[in-house]
Predict the structure.
Amino acid sequence: MYLIFDSVEQVSRFTAQRIFNKIVEKPTSVLGLATGGTMEPVYQELIALLKANNSNLSQLITFNLDEYVGLPPSHEQSYNYYMHHHLFDHIAIDDAQVHLPNGVAADLNTESKNYSQAILEAGGLDLQLLGVGGNGHIGFNEPNTAFNAPTHVVELSVQTRIDNARFFTQLDEVPTHAITMGMHDILQAKEILFVATGAHKAEIVQAIYANEPTERIPASAIKNHPNAIIVLDSAAASLLPETAQQHARVNAQML
Ligand code: F6R
């Protein structure tokens, strides 16, 4: 299902409300979380909702999608640091409840195997939050990753490193590798919330819309998922056919 909102604010409010509702409905939820610019306003809204409702998060479990290889949690561009800075430090959640792949593990393959296993042992993901890269990656599953891949180490594509260089002082500081939750782990989630905002996401959103699921475009896999919502702002949706845009447009007043 596609939902198109007028603004990033509305997208973020809707997305945060869905995550909040899931936590209320099932306090033992296992959430799959994402990082990146798209999620910053989502987490701001989520923090506000959790605070306003004095939510008890003591049974919540989270698993993040990915982490750069070679960056320790103390590194400001590590995803561990991002998650603490943008979410965990602002809500009542313990480190024992949150999981990110360890990008500085001595044995990255064992770390990857254990990560997929830990998700299974937690009961699987109830809700997976996803952003999308300009090349269609979800997590760091780059184009042509098998849809049945478990958590694994990936070499980042040049485009992904260029896209993410804005968070670093220069391109050669962007790590060359990452550990990512696999396509299989992601697609096993009971519910998927896929979020894309901004005109720079319009082409990939159009490609997802226009193509049958293909490993060439990892994000297209969610079209086969029985319970996925694609949440867009009007800029990210701007290259979709006019009729599709009309059909998916949400009157935010009605939410
Ligand atoms: C982040 C992640 C990535 C991002 C994607 C979009 O944990 O898994 O797939 O969601 O690169 O990033 P932004 O939101 O910065 O455009």
Observations:
- Residues 2-254 form a domain with the Rossmann fold fold (CATH 3.40.50.1360).
- Residues 105 and 111 are 7 Å apart (CA to CA).
- Residues 34-38, 65-66, 79, 131-133, 137-140 surround fructose -6-phosphate (CB under 6 Å).
